[in-house]
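Posting this for the archive.
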Amino acid sequence: MPFLLYGFYRAFLQLFVLPAVFRMRRVLREYPWRLYSDAPHGLADRADVVGRQYGWFEFPNPSRPEQKLAMVFPRHWGVGWWHRRMAPRATPELKAQIRVVWFAGDPRFTGVIAAPTSDESTARRFRFLNQQTGAEGGRHPVADWGATAEDIERGRRVGAGSDRL
């Protein structure tokens, strides 16, 4: 009986995971993977990130590489693996597991982050990231970040909402 209950519980959880999986799939079809070494990240609050914060990574703006944009984990559910490695008190062995990260997407809109396997040949631990910086409810005019009409259309194809673009 406990196995049956646990099976129902896991099946119920999958209902919440499937929408995120399909969003990740759209992003991965549109954008290629890029590897970033020592990408700035943290769990602390940032002045330019609004709302509840669960951790962030910084990636270069595609149109202005010198500008870094923070990508935020949208929800706390399922990000415990990442938090244990991002925490200030994490051991060096844990921190080394996210020294190199895989990223697919556009930091001005949305993206997918993944941790590498031990030999850095394959991505795993996929997590969806959102762009939530800005002063007005987490929205920032993407034109200020150098987004062209083509970039905006590409963002719409991967599911960045029309309210965002």
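The chain has four helices and seven strands. The helical segments are 2-30, 80-86, 92-96, 149-157.
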